[in-house]
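quick one: flavin-adenine dinucleotide bound model?
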Amino acid sequence: MRKPKKILIVGGGTAGWMAANMLVARWGDVQVSLLESSDIGIVGVGEGSTPHLKLFFDSIGVKESEWMPRCNATYKNGIYFSEWSHVPGYNSYFHPFPAQVDELTVPSFFHNIKARMQGIEAPAHPDNYFLESYLTRHNLGPLAAESFPFSVLYGYHFDSGLLGEFLAERAVAKGLHRINGTVTEVLLDEDGAVGSLRLDDDSLVEADFFVDCSGARSLLLQDALKVSFKSYRENLFNDSAVVIPTTIPDVVTPATRSTALSNGWAWQIPLTNRYGNGYVFSSDYIMPDRAEQELREHLGLLDSDVEARHLRMSIGRVDKHWAKNCLAVGLSQGFIEPLEATALALCYETIKHFLDHFEKGQFSNQYEKAFNQVINNKFEGIRDYIVAHYKANQRTDTQYWRDNAANTQLPDRLKAILYLWTHSKNFAEEMEAQKLGVSYQAKSWACLLAGYGIFPALQDAPAKAQPDVEQGMDEITDFIRRCGLNFQNHNQLLAQL
Ligand SMILES: Cc1cc2nc3c(=O)[nH]c(=O)nc-3n(C[C@H](O)[C@H](O)[C@H](O)COP(=O)(O)OP(=O)(O)OC[C@H]3O[C@@H](n4cnc5c(N)ncnc54)[C@H](O)[C@@H]3O)c2cc1C
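yep, here:
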C-alpha cells in the first residue's frame, strides 16, 4: 500500500502517450518511463474524437493553439450519417455534440416525435432542432463569442501520428524517460503480478506498476496475466478497414461524415491538409480487395494509384482493465469499431478513473473491482449505441444490411431502449426513469432513431398537430439562427490558431 516509485508504460501509440502525459501531470514524484519498439509500428489511424479529447488536453494544461496546428487538427461539431436509411426524407441526419441551448429546443423535438409516433404528420427530423447542426450547415466552428452564456461541447479531427509526436515531446520535456526496445518475455513474480520485462537485447526492465499500451497484442494484460477477452462479434459484424487519404477543398467542414456503403460504412474526416477516408466492413460479407475497389469508387479514385492501407479489428473488451499491478489502456483493453470515434474517449476515461480509484484506495487494489465495473459499463454503453445504428438501419439492398436489421442478439439495455421508442408515452422521461442513458443521452438516441425515420406509417386521415406544441418550427429556426450569430467561420477559426 504505497505509491509506486516506478511506472513503466509499454507502447508508444496514442494510448501510451495519453497515459504518459496524464501520469506525469498527476504524479510528478513518480518515475514514469515509456517503452516502445521501433520494429513494431503504431496503428496510426483514429483521427476523430469526442469532447473527451478536450477534457484530456484541459487536464494536462495544453491549449488548442499549442497542439492543433502541430497536428493538422480541425474542429468537430458532430457526425453526418448518410445513406443508412432509405426511408424517403430520412437518408441523412446529423448527430451533434451536446450544447446547452439544446435544452430549449429539444422539448419540441420530443413533442413532435410523440406526435409522429401517433401517426400524425409533424416535423420530427433531428436536423431542425440542434445548434451544432445549424453551425455545421453554415460552416461555423464551435467556439462561441465570450458574450454567449451557454456551453457548447465539441470534438476534433487530427493526424494521429502527429498527435503522438506532440504528446511524446511534451511528456519527455516533463521528465518522462523514453526507452526503445522490443519486449520478448514478460516475467511474473511469485504473486503472479508483472515483475519485469525482458527486451530483445536481453536486458531486464523493472517497475512497480505497468501500463499495457501495447496495442491489440495486449502483451501484459491478456498474454501474460491471462485476462480474458469478451468479443462483441455477435452484435458488431465489422472486422476490417481499408484507408485512403484524399485532397481536401479550401472550405473545411467541421464534421465527420459516415456514409453507408454495401457492406459497412465509409468515414470522411477533414484535416487541414487532407481528408482521412476509410471503409469499415465485415470480411464475412465482402472481400478486402472488393471493399478497396468500392471505397475507390465512392471517393472517385478509380484511376488513381494512391496507396490503400488494410487493417484488421478485434471488436470487444477485456473482462478486467486493471489486474494486479497492470492497467491496460487503448487497443490492449479492447476496441469498439470507430463509428462514433470513441476509442480515445475510452483511453481518457480509463486513465482518469484509474488514477482516482488507485489514489482513493491509497495505492492498493481495493477499488480494482469497482474500477473495472465502471469501465466495462462505459464500453457497454458505447457498444449499445453503435449496435443501434446497425439494428435500426433502413436498407434492404444487401444481405449485410438485412442481417444487421434482423439481428436478435441484442444487449438487454438496447432491447429496452428500442422497446421504449415504439411503446412509451414519453421516451425521454422513461429513459431517465429507467436510467438507460449510459454514455448517450435520450436526445442522442432520439437523433439516431428519428434520424433513420423509425416511425409508424402516417394515418390516412390527416390529423392536426397536438394542441400543446410549445414552439412552432419558425420560432425554433429563428432562435437557433440568432444563437448562430455568436459563432465564427470554421476556416477563420483555424487560421487564427
Ligand atoms: C480502422 C480504425 C479506425 C479508427 N478510428 C478511430 C477514431 O476515429 N477515433 C478514435 O478515437 N480511435 C480510432 N481508432 C482507434 C485508435 O486507432 C486507437 O485506439 C489508438 O490508435 C490507440 O492505439 P494504441 O496506442 O492502443 O495501440 P498502437 O497504436 O498499436 O500502439 C502500440 C504500441 O505498442 C508497441 N509495442 C507493441 N508490441 C511491443 C513489444 N513487443 N515491445 C515493445 N513495444 C511494443 C508498439 O511499438 C506501439 O508503440 C481506430 C482504429 C482503427 C483500427
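The pocket of flavin-adenine dinucleotide is lined by residues 10-16, 35-37, 40, 42-43, 45-49, 160, 182-183, 213-215, 217, 219, 241, 278, 311, 313, 330-332, 338, 341, 343-344 (CB under 6 Å).
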